[in-house]
Amino acid sequence: MALNAEDGGTRRCILVTNNENNICEQVTYERNRRVIRGYTTPKGVAVPGLLHNSLRYFRCVAPVPRTPTLRHKRELVRRATDLLCLKENCYTPLPGLPADGLFRAFGSPTGATVIVYDDLAVEEAAAYVAALPVPAQAPAGRPWCAVYVFAAASYAYEDEFAPVAARIRLSALPEALYRAWQHLLPPEGSMRPIEEAPAGPPPAEATNPSAPAQPAGELADLAAAPKTDKRGNLTLF
């Protein structure tokens, strides 16, 4: 944030933690909040805030099941709202949205994001995008509005949004999410739960007198305990 204030940059970062002992909520979040808003040191020195920044806190919840049913797809799109706002850097809710909540819109000085949760609202959403004013800092000659449309397959209703094609980037959901996660998540069923070691002593192994003896150094390596960090997590090096 300090570097952005010095050179006018637009750097962003994501902090991820398991919130052990509430360190994120009570320490990390509070420190960043004070840096943005400004604070007073214990010696009474006022430190101005880096006001041209924002801070948001998200919690991870139980994932949507992988089975691609229509119900799961709709739930995945609904839960993806915050992620899409984070991706597009658009957080301010825009006015003039339908009361039924079939689509939502968020804006920023550089662009807008429209998320359509039901294909029944596609035409209404297209008309809404057509009426949006161009943001003050929108990039010249490039689409400035990201439109995400719920679709059962990969068709993103290009025909319905054709009149506003020059101002939008169109994506079908959740198909775009599934394609992205194929590169991040392991194949379904490829991960097995870690079985706990039995409480009793390990069973004795049969010995083969004819097998060649291993050097003492190798036996020592095999017998050595695995390396762990201070929390008991296994380390590779």
Mind explaining what this structure looks like?
The protein has 237 residues and is an alpha/beta fold. The chain has seven helices and seven strands. The strands form two sheets. The chain has a five-stranded mixed beta sheet, with helices on both faces. It has a two-stranded antiparallel ribbon with strand order 1-2. The radius of gyration is 26 Å and the shape is globular.
Question: How do the strands and helices of this protein lay out in sequence?
Answer:
Elements: H1 2-7, H2 23-37, E1 39-40, E2 46-47, H3 70-79, H4 81-88, E3 92-93, E4 103-107, E5 112-116, H5 122-131, E6 145-150, E7 168-173, H6 175-181, H7 216-223
Parallel strand pairs: 5-6, 6-7
Antiparallel strand pairs: 1-2, 3-4, 4-5
Distance between the termini: 34 Å
Morphology: globular
Question: What is the number of helical segments per DSSP (H or I, 4+ residues)?
Answer: 7
Mean pLDDT: 82
Q: What is the element string, with H for helices and E for strands?
A: HHEEHHEEEHEEHH
Regions with pLDDT < 50 over 5+ consecutive residues? 214-224
The main sheet comes to: 5 strands, mixed
Q: Which class of secondary structure composition applies to the elements?
A: alpha/beta
Strand order of the largest sheet: 3-4-5-6-7
Residue share in helices?
25-40%
* Extended strand count: 7
Work out the strand percent. Answer: 5-15%
What is the rounded Rg? 26 Å
